[in-house]
Design goal:
Radius of gyration: 21 Å
CATH class of the domain at 5-142 and 315-336: Alpha Beta
Strand order of the largest sheet: 3-2-1-7-8
Order of helices and strands: EEEEHEHEHEHHEHEEEHEHEEHHHEHEH
CATH architecture of the domain at 5-142 and 315-336: 2-Layer Sandwich
Number of helices: 13
Number of strands: 16
Helix content: 25-40%
Distance between the termini: 23 Å
Strand content: 15-25%
CATH topology of the domain at 5-142 and 315-336: Nucleotidyltransferase, domain 5
Structural class: alpha/beta
CATH superfamily of the domain at 5-142 and 315-336: ATPase, nucleotide binding domain
Length: 341
């Protein structure tokens, strides 16, 4: 096996990251890093850094960081070290030491893939022999074999990334992003509930769990009300948040629709019909029930629109990166306006 190349695809998400390899490794990890708060915590944990669920489990003893929380790497040496530690950790899960050569394609939020390429390359440099960075929407399109005049809407935790794909690596002008992703929905849900129930005590993690379980928009209204447990000024309650959930989920629709219209209007008019007919809704936000149908309805004034909601939003970006790594020879990477090292 020493003469073989290990190919790795990574979806570097704002909330959750995924690694898949040509050696059949598949790992999911929350994009969270924790460092001990003090010497006691370090001695107790017996490690300098923890990742993902393990970091959350021990969060009271840790300083927690989400290095891609807003879709870009924060420009501090501390945050660059954190993202380097995290990428090294993901690659290590693929057992790369068994191979002489390791090649990785990393999908990142659209803005990060454009602005922070150097930081991501530097982060991966110690673990791989060659790397290229692509935007997550393009990785999704590549995994689906839909790179011919497709418009991808990738709703992550920190951002919603939109991208025109037409048979080549998209440039900055082909991509748009907004901060209206899953975190925005969570914050809006808390705001809506606290406006309805004065004194409601809700954490971000509670809101996220409810969203993942009950999210919907008006095109897919549930038969039963959304009832959840939380405290009001310390008193345990079970209350109806159906209207709050709908309002929070629909809060991201307008920015997405406006950006879709802009990307289509600014493209070559000979291909407008194809972009309208080939839209892909991906990312964790694609799990909001009825969202694809609502986007179609809101774009109906532009003509016939078809939105394909992906079946596997968690793994798709990483699978696209792996497929690209295995199919595109490294000597062609620079011709694709990418870089390697």
């Amino acid at each position: 096996m020493a003469d073989d190349v290990l190919y790795i695809g990574i979806d570097l998400g704002t909330f959750r990251s995924v690694m898949v390899s040509s050696d059949s490794h598949e790992e999911e990890e929350l994009t969270v890093i924790g460092t001990p708060k003090d010497a006691i915590a370090k001695n107790f944990l017996k490690r300098d850094v923890l990742f993902g669920e393990e970091a959350l489990k021990n969060r009271l003893a840790l300083n927690l960081y989400r290095p891609l929380e807003k879709g870009v790497i924060k420009d501090t040496s501390e945050d660059r070290k954190h993202i380097a530690d995290f990428i090294t950790h993901l690659i290590a899960l693929a057992d790369p030491e068994e191979y002489n050569r390791v090649v990785s394609v990393i999908g990142a939020p659209a803005e990060a893939s454009h602005v922070d390429k150097t930081a991501i390359f530097d982060a991966a440099a110690g673990s791989v022999n060659a790397a290229m960075i692509i935007s997550e929407p393009f990785a999704v399109a590549y995994a689906l074999d839909m790179i011919e005049h497709t418009l991808v809407i990738d709703i992550g935790a920190g951002t919603a990334d939109l991208c025109r794909v037409y048979g080549t690596i998209p440039g900055p002008g082909d991509q748009m992003h907004t901060g209206h992703g899953g975190d925005f929905v969570d914050a809006e849900l808390i705001k809506q509930i606290q406006a309805k129930y004065n004194g409601a005590q809700i954490t971000k993690d509670m809101a996220r769990r409810w969203k993942e379980q009950f999210s919907f928009v008006s095109t897919s209204t549930p038969k039963n009300p959304v009832m959840v447990d939380f405290s009001i000024e310390g008193k345990a309650m079970t209350l109806d948040i159906t209207d709050c959930m709908q309002a929070a989920c629909e809060s991201i629709v307008d920015p997405i629709v406006e950006n879709v219209k802009t990307l289509i209007a600014d493209s070559n008019p000979e291909f407008h019909d194809q972009f309208r007919a080939n839209m892909v809704l991906a990312g964790g936000g694609s799990g909001i029930k009825g969202l694809g149908a609502m986007i179609e309805r809101r774009l109906s004034d532009m003509g016939d629109v078809n939105v394909h909601v992906v079946d596997d939003p968690v793994r798709l970006g990483a699978m696209g990166g792996l497929r690209l790594a295995m199919e595109v020879p490294e000597d062609m990477w620079k011709n694709l306006t990418l870089a390697s090292r």
